[in-house]
Every structure is written in structure tokens, then in C-alpha cells.
Amino acid sequence: MMTTIETYVRRGQGNLRKWALDPRARMGAKISACFLAGLVLSGASLANVPQPLAMGLVCALSGWRAAVAAAGGAAGYLIFWGQAGYQGLCWLGLALGVALILGKRRILDESPLLMPAIAGLIVSATGLAFQIWTADATTVPQYLLRILLGAGTAKLFELVRDRRDRAADWLALGCGVLSLSQIAPFGFSLGYVAAGAVTAWGALPAAALAGLALDLAQLTRVSMTAAMTLASLLRLVPAAKPWIPYTYPGLMYLLVMGLSGNREILPFFALTLGGALAALVPREQAGIRRRGETGLLQVRLELMAGVLSEIQQLLLESPGIPIDEEALLLRTRERACGSCPNRKGCRERLEPLPNGLLHSPLVEVSSLSVACKKPGRMILELRRTQEQYRALRADRERQGEYRSAVIQQYQFLSAFLQQQSEGLPRREIRLRQRFTPEVSLCSAGKEMANGDRCASFMGTGCRYYIVLCDGMGTGLGAAQEGQSAVSLLRRMLSAGFPAEYALRSLNALLVLRGRAGAVTVDLAELQLDSGRATVYKWGAAPSWLMRDGGAEKIGTATPPPGLSIAEGRETVERLSLRRGEVLILTSDGVEVDGALRRVRGICTLPPGEVAAKLLELGSQEREDDATVAAVRLRSGVLST
Q1: What is the pTM of this model?
Q2: Cβ of 376: how many Cβ atoms within 10 Å?
Q3: pLDDT beyond 90 at 525
Q4: At what angle do helices 63-81 and 86-102 cross, to 10 degrees?
């Protein structure tokens, strides 16, 4: 039986997947990709003038990747441009020096436009130098265009590297097609092949940009933008066979060519070849989602967020139920005078009791408005009413705490749902993990059940969390409180709840349960893509940041959570762990200050030894459970 085209396609895709799983093949592919990318981008031309696209790629990379891309670009400028490519060699040399010097330094994260600005400066300076010393004939518009492309492609390839924006991927594909348009080793431009592959495999904007790149390269008088756009639109129509859409680039080119009256048949074969190559590229296995379902889900989330926000506003606007002091005093007068033998003589003359009597700490006979013939009876009833008033006021305050907790949770949920709705239609930003957390914990309990509870776990994105909760006192009760707090925080943070919302939700829960001060919270949020850290404290002991130059105290003593909804907040400290610093989290059973003076070279020790030594030296005379957590970020990502 004759093997069908689909069989060949599936077999080719399977071979590509097997090859991609080989570590040596993957490393070789990375090196080849960097070299070929630099080589291809060096061929980019507008108005027959070389452009600094390869330099933009080198600026977006670092380390050996930048060096390999620079080598490929240098070879390309010499092969494609000859003597006219010497300026491109200067671009690549300067860009490679900057990329190797700055690398992954913190300044690039803090100033995201620094590298594009440096790229533009390199192009402008070299262009000016070549005009002065070699009498370069580059015109002013071409000079300005080079500067714009140098700075723009440096930022563009950085976005592509970090997978931050789908539009950046489309523009990068257009740059690739423009660069390949100048390469024709087999008698036809490879730009046609690349445009055919992009149109048959990519999205509509990518196909339109690929056609625009061919038009800018001025390879043919046929409108390639129209042909590639029509081919991409035709892919939206269901086809009888899965291989048919891969022929659309060539077929639409024939249609546009016939309408324009031009007769250039060679691009048809190149576009058809590109469509055939696109069939071999494995597609990501995504879940089936009906068209419009994402938008419908986004609308529902926005409606839910709006309803919760409206409920929150109604609760804020509705006044609390006041205590009717006049009714309490009237009942007091009725109870005091109702059984008094002298009620007929003085009841009509006794004025209403003033409201201020309920607020007086001690009611005396002089507090009454007129002379009462039986003041003892009246004073006794007033004191009973005062006790009732204090109980009612405490109940109103308790209800106010409940109300504030409910309002706060409505606020958190509304903001969280709105945030999820806004991010739903966007492409997920794949942050690149650059650091691996090293967390070591040492703990010693005064009793069998340790009240100090600690957990470390991965959150959403590139966030990593360390939670240390110290239960009040020692024993089983403290251990249960600590474990309950850690479990609640872990579930909320793992679900993507912001750390501030999670901590305040725990505070509200403790207030409603009447467990003020039952637990203290230490929460460290590590960003594994940037090396930054945020330490949240609520009633916890101070932490320490260890550097080669010494130790820095992090945080101060604050009241524990659970005291009030409105008052009291977590303290927030932001710091960096990019340079090998060690973050020390402890419970209040450890005396860290004295132990640090007795440990030498603490930053050079593994986190496990740091935690063990500080626990041993800082809790020798402890009266409470003692726990030490040592945290350090190591550059690189573990394979498992």
C-alpha cells in the first residue's frame, strides 16, 4: 500500500521530537541556531544598504550565545557585503563587548531601555566615524534608519528571548524573512521559502509581516503582502485534507500574480517548498477550546468582580446599628420607679436621665438631675444598665470586626478576579528562571510537639515562598495553630493569591476566631527570574541578611496578627539575593545577634551548616521552641 503524505509528515515530526530530546543534539542545535541567526540577520538590507539586525541580536544575548551570534554575523557581513560589511564588523565587536561586560547584571533589569540605547549609540558613533574617515556615502535618512533599527531590534530580540509578547515574535519572523530575502544559493531567494513556511504555520499577523518584508526587499513586482495575507485567511476555512492548507501560499501567489499581470513563476515553487517544510514542524498540543470561550470566561470574571465590588461598596455605605441610649435610660427609670413607694410624688417631677450617665465610670447621687427620694434604687438600676450598655457596645464592636473582615474579603476577591480577567486573553509570559533556591531548616522543640512550623514551596510564575509560623507558647496547641496558618497560606499562595491578600485574610480569620496573637508569620517571597526577595513580617522576630561585609537586621518587632481588622499591617522589606547573600529567618526562641558574632565566614558555608550553627549557638538557654531557616539563591536552574 502506498504511504500517504500524512504518514510521511507524522514520521518526520516524530523524528524531530526524538532528536529534540537528545541533550547533545539540543546543545548542538542551540550553537547552530545562534550562529545561523547572526549569519542570516547580517544579510538584512534596505535600499541596498546593510542594516544592524545582527548587532541587535548580539545585544539581546549574553555569554557564549552572544559570542557565537557575533561570529555568525561577522562571517555574514564578510560573505554578503565584502568591504561594505566592515562597518557591520565594528557594530558586532562593540556590541559583543557590551554584552559580555553587562551580561545578566542587575542594571539591565532596573533599566530595561539601557541596552537599546547603547545599541543606538554604537550605530550612530560608528556611522559618524565611517563618514569622517572613510568618506562613507550613506545618506542621512539611511543613517537615521540604521540607528532606529539598531535600537529597536535590540529591544525586539530581548522580548523574543524572554517570550514576553506575541507581537514581538511576529516582528522577529518578519526580520528573518527580510534577511533571508538577500540569500539565494539555489537560484531563488530563501525569503520566499521562509515566507511560505511562516504563512502555512504561523498566525495572520506573522504572514502579513512576512509578505511585507518581501515587498521591502523588492524581489518581485507581485504584491507579496496581499498573497500571504490571503493565504493565511484561507487557512481559517476548514479543509478536506490536513495537508491542503500547506499549499495555500503558492496557490495564492498564483492568484495575485494573475491579477497583477506579472509572470514570475519561480517564487511559486519556493513558496510551495516553504509550505511543505512547515508541515514537518511539530505543533504544540493544546487543549480544545471553542472559539469565543475565552472571551465569554473573561466577561464572566469581570461580572463577578463587579458584583463583589458593588457588594463591598454597599457594605461600606450602610451605617452600623447604633445603641439606643435613650431607650436604655427610659427602661432604667421605669424599673427604678415602677415599684418605688414614692413614685406618685416624684415621678412627674423627675426629668429624663441624661445620656452621659451611661458613659460615666462611677454613678453617684449627684449625677441625677433632681433629688430622688430613693436614690439607692436608682443608682443600682443605673449601674446594671451601664453593664448592659458595655456588653452591647462590645457586641457592636465585634460585629464591626466581622463586617470589616467581610468587606476586606470582598475587596480581595474582587481585585483578584479582575486581575485574572485582564490577564486571561493575553499570552502567558514565560519568565526565565535564573536562580535555584537553597533552603535549609533546623528546629528544636521544648516539648514533643513543636509550635514552630515552616514550609517552602513553588508558587505561580517564578515565585518561591518560605513560610515560618510560630505558634503561641509551646506544645500541641501551638503546633496546631502554626500548622493551620502554614497550611492556609500555602494553599492561597500556590493558587496565585498575592502575598498581602493572603496575610490579611489570615489576620481576618484570627480576628473572627478570637485567636489574637495565636501565631506570628514570617513570609519570604523569592523571584527566581530576577533574584529579588520580599520579606513580609507580622509579629515575627527580626530576620538577618548576611553579606560578605557583615550582617543587616531585617524588620522590627510588631504586634501579632488577629488583634484587629482595621489596625495593624504586615511590614514589608525588599532586598536582593543575587550576589550570594544568605537570608536568615528565625522564631523568637533563637538569639541570633549573639550567635552571629561567634560564626566566621558564614556566607561561605552551605545553608544547612548556617542553620545548624545558629540554632546551636542561639538557643542554648531557650525557654521556647527554636527554629532557624537559611535561604540562598544559586545562579542556574536544576535539571530536576
Answers
A1: 0.49
A2: 10
A3: yes
A4: 180
Adjacent-strand bridge partners of 626: 444
Q: How far apart are CA 131 and CA 148, in angstroms?
A: 18
Amino acid at 575: L
Amino acid identity at 569: R
- Cell readout for 71 is 561570529
Q: Average pLDDT, whole number, for the chain?
A: 79
Classify the phi-psi angles of 567: left when phi > 0, otherwise alpha if psi is within -120 to 50, otherwise beta: beta
| Number of other CB atoms surrounding residue 342 within 10 Å | 12
CA nearest to 139, candidates 218, 46, 209 = 46
Mean pLDDT is lowest, of 34-48, 53-67, 79-93, 298-312, for 298-312
Give the model's pLDDT for residue 284.
46
What does each C-alpha distance from 41 to 75, 76, 151, 219, 413 come to in angstroms? 11, 8, 15, 17, 48
Q: Determine the residue type at 321.
A: I
Cβ(340)–Cβ(453) below 8 Å:
no
Q: What is the DSSP string of 429-466?
A: P-PPP-EEEEEEEEEE-SSSS-SEEEEEEE-STTEEEE
**Environment class of 68 (CB within 10 Å of its CB; exposed 0-12, middle 13-18, buried 19+):** buried
Report helix angle 248-260 to 224-234, nearest 10: 140
d(CA 53, CA 88): 10
